[in-house]
Amino acid sequence: MQLDYIDHYNEYDDNIVRLYDFDMAEANKFRQIVQQSILVNMKTLNLASIDFIDARNCNLTLRISEEDEGITTENNVEFYCDLTTNGYRQMIILLEQFCSKETKGYQFLYDIDSHTDFLFSPAGTW
Q1: What angle do CA 43, 63, 107 make, to 5 degrees?
Q2: Cα 46 from chain centroid?
Q3: What are 43-95's pLDDT values in tens digits?
Q4: What is the CATH number of domain 2-121?
Q5: Against a cut of 0.90, is the pTM above it?
Q6: How many CB atoms lie within 10 A of CB 7?
Q7: Which of 44, 51, 85, 106 suits 37 as a labelling partner, its CA being 20 to 30 A distant?
């Protein structure tokens, strides 16, 4: 599984932090780690600390927040995804489609009006 950042991917100057290049088994492991770390243990989760994720040009840390803010950064290298526990529960639901069968589809992992989207895509495309 690869993690990277793409800036200005559309005409609105939006950005993407994406997780890609994975199969059903890795998607399932990722979903379980997010559920355990965030929703059960109530801890932050640094994606670079996950052994099967290769952080290419950025890092992303998932954090629990009082409001769903999405992904933010100050330097386009260290990113923070701030969602409520309900936001992470919704993310877990969105990840399930990748855990039950192999697919070439993609999913944005939250629907928040922010400048940086969080893309989950086995093939890296959208």
Answers
A1: 115
A2: 11
A3: 999 999 999 999 999 999 999 999 999 999 999 999 999 999 999 999 999 99
A4: 3.30.1360.230
A5: yes
A6: 11
A7: 106
